[in-house]
């Protein structure tokens, strides 16, 4: 599947360091009492006998999908962090037998998200949308960042191009992964580990790709 890349932010190597340095402007963070544990186990073998043709394809919507911060440099950093997770998820879905199309939305394209998504879904006749959203906020427990994953089925009575996208989406899996926004947490965060955890969660929830054959 062709990947739609309309925006190319800085590469990941210096990203976590930049985010860690930026924490000073946010005040001293407290440890979250119930930060999730990110497993690092690899994704298991396919448990479904379905072929990619049976499953259709999935658009992975990511990039600047989430919090809009006053600092543009910080927005670019979180864009790349979001992108790194989306790429890891896309790789793992492909390994499970589901073709994916990575749709990265740039900071200047936020208002066009639905238009870009509709074009991507219609262009490849994709049957699923996996949206990766990041949230950067602070609450009574201190600063935190969170990734929300939402997998939806594209509901259509026929194979004609859709005219709108949101009314056609039917949720199949939704989960949030929250972390303390501290130097230690950012240094330990790995997109591949979180992607593994998300895939295992989808399997445990009986998402269609891994559902037992009827």
Describe the fold and architecture.
Helix 1 packs across helix 3 and helix 3 crosses helix 6. The longest helix has 24 residues. It is built from 6 helices and 6 strands. Strands 1-3-2-4-5-6 form a 6-stranded mixed β-sheet, with helices on both faces. The chain is of the alpha/beta class and 214 residues long. The chain is globular, with a radius of gyration of 17 Å.
What does the secondary structure layout of this molecule look like, with pairings?
Blueprint: E1 4-5, H1 15-22, H2 52-55, E2 58-63, H3 72-95, E3 100-105, H4 113-124, E4 128-139, E5 142-154, E6 169-180, H5 183-188, H6 191-204
Parallel strand pairs: 1-3, 2-3, 2-4
Antiparallel strand pairs: 4-5, 5-6
Helix pairs in contact: 1-3, 3-6
Number of beta strands? 6
The separation of the N and C termini measures 28 Å
Low-confidence stretches: 23-54
- Percentage beta strand: 15-25%
List keywords for this structure.
single chain, about 210 residues, alpha/beta, 6-stranded mixed β-sheet, 6 helices
In short:
With 214 residues, this protein is an alpha/beta fold. It contains six helices and six strands. Helix 1 crosses helix 3 and helix 3 (72-95) packs across helix 6.
